[in-house]
Specification:
Layout: E1 4-15, E2 18-30, E3 35-39, H1 46-53, E4 61-66, E5 69-70, H2 75-81, E6 82-85, H3 97-107, H4 112-125, H5 141-151, E7 159-163, H6 171-186, E8 190-195, H7 198-204, E9 207-212, E10 215-220, H8 222-229, E11 232-238, H9 241-250, E12 255-257, E13 260-265, H10 268-281, E14 286-292, H11 296-304, H12 308-324
Parallel strand pairs: 3-8, 3-9, 6-7, 7-8
Antiparallel strand pairs: 1-2, 1-4, 4-5, 9-10, 11-13, 11-14, 12-13
Helix pairs in contact: 3-4, 8-11
The structure holds adenosine-5'-triphosphate (ATP) and magnesium ion.
Adenosine-5'-triphosphate binds near residues 45 and 87.
Amino acid sequence: MFAVEAKNLKKTFKSKDGDVEAVKDVSFHVNQGEIFSILGPNGAGKSTTILMLTTLLRVSSGSGTIFGLDVEKEDRNVREKIGIALQDTGLDNLLTGRELFFTTARLWGFSKTDAETRTSELLQLVGLEEAADRRVKTYSGGMKRRLDLGLSLVHKPDVLFLDEPTTGLDPGSRRVLWDEIKRLRDGGVTIILTTQYLEEADELADRISIIDNGLVAAEGTPDELKALIGGDVITFTFNSDNEVKKAQQLIENSETEKNQLRVTVENGAEKIPDLLKHLSNNKLEVVSVTANKPSLDDVFLQVTGYRLEGAAEEEKLEEEVSENE
Ligand SMILES: Nc1ncnc2c1ncn2[C@@H]1O[C@H](COP(=O)(O)OP(=O)(O)OP(=O)(O)O)[C@@H](O)[C@H]1O
Ligand SMILES: [Mg+2]
């Protein structure tokens, strides 16, 4: 039996301006004890998928199951099996970390003594012992995310849903969380996490589903996904955008990005001399050339037609522009 299964999940939001198809057709399964990552850009439908699987949002059509339990028909039983750390948490800033753990444990039905024990265990697990008696509002972003993670574990769930657990964290805090997530997986917890970071999916996930525009664009282990591309990615760097454009016309199936040109070939080492010669015969000066195995970034580009990291940066710029207006 799968820990989690989504079968043709669909969610349509009705609004005055017409229907929004947030999730169009999403299917996947997650094996017990693995980290499964849903990777996709803003608005792809990641949170909506998580909300349906965690019984917090009704399914428009299709089905979701947790260890065979239907998320719509057996929602109470499902909720006992799962822990959730949502993207927008309403952490109570006036309480201390210790108080939050204790209260949550009491809400789950723990006795006072058991709630105290669980609180100490979890404060230790997520490394918040020293900050335990400070109000949550004084916590850093990384500490808050660790608190979220700890709170989702109070009732010892079998399956943990984490919606963008490291968004907005600095690289150091992100790594601390990654290590904690891996430790949980090694302890037998099944984990589904959404992310818009390629590096995060690559580092953490046993398997990845790339979601774009409410649909699954590709699924597999990081290595399987990279093997979809096959061969080596050669990158030529030029002095100007103009030269890149000329070079693109000379090399078949190449893609440009700023002053770089990329082309995927079967064997990079074999092909580079020919390509360099072809370029120099056409009076194009190459500043540098590299050959690499495909990255998840290349996979994302191939299956969706655009780059994830670039899209995130553009969005950020747009936000900054609109903030300045
Ligand atoms: N309650 C709602 N009503 C109407 N539209 C919604 C609602 N919730 C989400 N949407 C829309 O559905 C689409 C998917 O949203 P969702 O929040 O699932 O994306 P996401 O992949 O989690 O994005 P992000 O990375 O920004 O969190 C978006 O276009 C969003 O605007
Ligand atoms: Mg989201």
